[in-house]
Amino acid sequence: MTLYRKNLKLCQELFTVISCFEIALRNRIDRHYISIHGNDWLRDSVRPDGIFSTVPTKQTHKIINTCLSRLTTYNHSKLVAEMDFGFWRYLFASPQFKTAGQSLLKVFPNKPSSTPTLQYNHTYVFNHLDQINHIRNRIAHHEPICFRPKLPIKDTTYARQRYNVILQFFKWLNIDEAALLYGLDHISPVCDEIDRL
């Protein structure tokens, strides 16, 4: 019961941090595409000549249209808010990244330069956002995050690693995560408590 409660606390803490990161990333992407594609870029992207009106991006097209249909009155900010974390992640997938102009990495002004052995490209971002999305979904589906993946061994490494990916992306976004998360981030102490059980 103690471990169950500590896992709930860790989920609560991590979901808060993920939510702050999702909003920061979403807003940065939105501002970037507004500067390139206009104030209604998201709605315009599914018009017949829109950036996501291509066969490789048909799922993105469908998601945007579904969200548009749920709005009683159109407003760009409302449409942006309708999109989930997976949508923003998929903007870094190759088809979406390419058809939108291959400029989305500019949302990360502090991204390190790639090396011959490590490419900090859109695929790298997509794959690491997938790690965040995976733990977000585990939390949303009430699955434990205080064990080694697929093993009944208590271990907070999985949660700590995903947390560190979020902190890395905050730095790349040039966001002071300590100030943003002040009073909200207690992940390390909760992980320490779980590890001591």
Quick gist of this model?
The chain has 197 residues and is mainly α.
Structural class: mainly alpha
**Individual helix count:** 10
Span between termini? 11 Å
| Main beta sheet | none
Strand content: under 5%
Would you identify the regions where 5 or more consecutive residues have pLDDT less than 50? none
Mean pLDDT: 96
Q: Any idea how many domains?
A: 1
Question: What is the number of strand segments?
Answer: 0
Relative helix content: 55-70%
Order of helices and strands: HHHHHHHHHH
What is the 3D form?
globular
Query: What does the radius of gyration come to?
Result: 18 Å
What is this structure's SSE topology?
Blueprint: H1 2-37, H2 41-44, H3 58-70, H4 76-82, H5 85-90, H6 94-99, H7 122-140, H8 157-172, H9 177-180, H10 187-196
What does this molecule look like?
With 197 residues, this protein is mainly α. The radius of gyration is 18 Å and the shape is globular. The mean pLDDT is 96. The chain has ten helices and no strands. The N and C termini lie close together (11 Å). The relative contact order is 0.16. 61% of the residues lie in helices and 0% in strands. The protein has one domain.
Core attributes:
single chain, 197 residues, mainly alpha, 10 helices, globular
